[in-house]
Amino acid sequence: MEKLREPLNEIAQCGLPLALEAMGERWSFMILRAAFNGVRHFEDFLEALGIARNILSNRLSRLVEVGILKREHCADDRRRIEYRLTPKGLDLLPAMLALRQWGEKWQLGVPANPVLCDARDGFPIAAIVIHAQDGRTLTPEDLMWRERSEIEAAPAKPKLREAR
Fold this sequence. Notes:
This protein is mostly helical. 41% of the residues lie in helices and 9% in strands. It has helices spanning 15-23, 26-36, 42-49, 53-65, 87-90, 93-108, 148-153, and strands spanning 69-73, 81-85, 130-131, 137-138. It has a two-stranded antiparallel sheet. It has a two-stranded antiparallel sheet with strand order 3-4. The two termini are 29 Å apart.
């Protein structure tokens, strides 16, 4: 992975520290996991996660503050609040799945149950991998860092279809 180098001292130019700052720590990921599984109400998060009230309140507030979750009044009872994923929060799904798959492979040692499947055909989703613009699967050896100015100065490539 010798080709894969970036200036590690330029933290402000990297999205990873910003993403980690937004998410916080373990409980934020567990709250996000619950939200992806349809949990919406404070009491339901408490029950599903076994988290202390003060920690849950703090983490939910932080996830709302950074725009990952939004607070909405329930349609049937305006006194109750729901926490819903925003588009910014929904964009974390691939990262969450990649972390889950890594944990199953390297920490758990076996695939977890239940298995996340494609709703169309019922088969398990593929492993999260890095893809080239043309769809090829890439390994760390296939990667390199380039200055954005070099990429913008290069001739335009035809736009490829978006992954769905």
